[in-house]
Design a protein that fits this description.
Blueprint: H1 2-10, H2 23-33, H3 35-53, H4 66-87, H5 98-159, H6 166-171, H7 176-250, H8 253-299, H9 317-328, E1 341-344, E2 347-350, E3 358-361, E4 364-367, E5 373-375, E6 380-388, E7 392-399, E8 402-410, E9 419-420, E10 425-429, E11 431-432, E12 437-446, E13 449-451
Antiparallel strand pairs: 1-4, 2-3, 4-12, 5-10, 6-7, 6-9, 7-8, 8-10, 8-12, 11-12, 12-13
Helix pairs in contact: 3-7, 4-5, 5-7
Length: about 450
């Protein structure tokens, strides 16, 4: 009896049936005491793997992210909707004007981009579903292991219930250190059971979330496949309509070529007028800077020296700040009209009707609705309000060393020298009743160097 008590006092795991002094028994006891730490490491590793592999957290693919594609799809859908609204006035019993054909061609290109975005989104969802299935499989496997481990712990505890009279176990200790060790042993075993239960509950929740996410991805993919099919059908019809209208306009190819050349001549006149106005602004700014410099030297009693040759436009501190703020908003500037579609992009491109004529655009043309207002894309000052043949009224705003040009306006509400704020109304976009066209020509320059406005405007 005394021997059994001795063993019980010195060896808290007498139920193992091994010699308390044997290395095997000591290893078993050490492992048992550190089970809680081992399980904690296992849980941490498992959760880390779940975080990395879970498609909910891995939205990015090698290409665009899911959110980027959704934004692109929404933008393209709005542009196509606007183009449809602008083309709605066209009657089936008359031929389209060249402007309307250009707008239809633009809509087709936007729809092709939309279909591409749909396909990318569908592929991303397919990958997400595949990852979700693998994740569910892994989680189920982990859950099965956890349940088996927990079952073993319950069986072990039931078999050795008599050895877990906590108070008796602790009070049977021969000294304080042993009592403390036994108390810690009981606490670790209890904590280990709680940890295992929490692991099982968390894994079950992860499985439920993964199944729900996978189901949502499948439903979204099915919807997108349906939408993509509808877009393909609409694209086919629009291409047939465009080919028919182009065939009709080709009968007037000579006249159309001449019209395009006339408009290019008008564009050159507009370019020269803009360049002259900006050159004058640069000259005045540099003259003003030189005058201030002479006054400062005179005040300080210094000999007046020739002003250094300016490499660019002289700017005041406030104008430098304005220029910096303008640059910092590249890609985020609001559109110069509230709603519209880019009907003619920046740079050189051939006409839809005739590939014999190359059109050069120094800015972008934005087709919009009748009565639309042109608005400032950024804070600035009105540098010029000028009437030009073929361009109606042209408003030029200065933003430090940057300039924005708003052409084809009427009923202008600003004058030279006015300070304007972002999105402030500048005037109404002119509507050409003959061509059934309401179109704003917009340019953006750094001093006299033209930029592609599409790169500066928000998407």
């Amino acid at each position: 009896m005394n021997n059994r008590l001795n063993i019980y006092q010195t060896h808290p795991s007498r139920h193992c049936g091994l010699d308390p002094q044997s290395p095997k028994c000591r290893r078993w006891r050490m492992c048992l005491r550190h089970d809680g730490k081992k399980w904690f490491v296992s849980v941490f590793a498992l959760l880390f793997l779940l975080f990395v592999s879970n498609p909910i957290y891995c939205q990015k693919t090698k290409g665009k992210s899911k959110q980027q594609l959704e934004t692109e799809i929404n933008t393209l859908q709005k542009e196509i909707s606007t183009a449809n609204q602008l083309l709605k006035k066209t009657k089936k019993d008359r031929e389209m004007t060249l402007n309307e054909v250009n707008l239809l061609d633009k809509k087709i290109k936007q729809r092709e981009k939309l279909i591409k975005a749909y396909n990318e989104q569908i592929a991303l969802l397919d990958e997400e579903i595949h990852q979700g299935q693998n994740n569910i499989k892994t989680l189920n496997s982990d859950l099965s292991k956890l349940q088996k481990e927990y079952a073993k712990m319950i069986v072990f505890a039931n078999k050795n219930r008599s050895h877990y009279d906590r108070l008796g176990f602790i009070f049977a200790s021969k000294d304080f250190n042993q009592a403390f060790s036994r108390l810690r042993y009981i606490r670790e075993f209890t904590d280990a059971r709680k940890t295992k239960m929490n692991q099982i509950a968390n894994t079950e929740r992860e499985i439920s979330n993964a199944v729900e996410a996978s189901q949502q991805a499948r439903e979204q993919q099915a919807t997108m496949l349906k939408d993509e099919k509808a877009q393909q059908e609409a694209l086919k019809n629009e291409k047939e309509e465009l080919n028919g209208q182009v065939a009709k306009l080709k009968k007037q190819e000579g006249k159309i070529q001449q019209d395009i050349k006339d408009k290019q001549q008008q564009a050159k006149k507009l370019q020269k007028a803009i360049d002259d106005i900006i050159a004058e602004e640069i000259r005045k700014a540099n003259e003003e800077a030189a005058r201030k410099r002479r006054e400062e030297e005179k005040t300080k009693g210094k000999t007046t020296t020739p002003a250094p040759k300016e490499k660019g436009m002289a700017l005041t501190p406030a104008e430098k700040t304005l220029s910096t703020n303008f640059v910092n908003n590249k890609g985020k500037l609001p559109w110069p009209v509230e709603r519209g579609v880019i009907s003619s992009s920046y740079g050189k491109h051939t006409s839809v009707v005739s590939d014999k004529v190359t059109v050069t655009n120094n800015g972008i043309d934005i087709a919009t609705t009748e009565g639309a207002k042109a608005r400032a894309v950024f804070d600035g000052e009105v540098a010029s309000v000028t009437k030009l043949t073929g361009a109606n009224t042209v408003v030029i705003l200065r933003h430090g060393e940057y300039f924005t040009v708003y052409s084809n306006l009427e009923n202008v509400t600003v004058k030279r020298g006015d300070k304007v704020k972002t999105k402030q109304n500048l005037g109404t976009v002119h509507t050409n009743k003959t061509e059934n066209k309401t179109e704003l020509h917009f340019e953006l320059l750094k001093e006299q160097n033209r930029q592609n406005p599409a790169n500066w405007l928000s998407n």
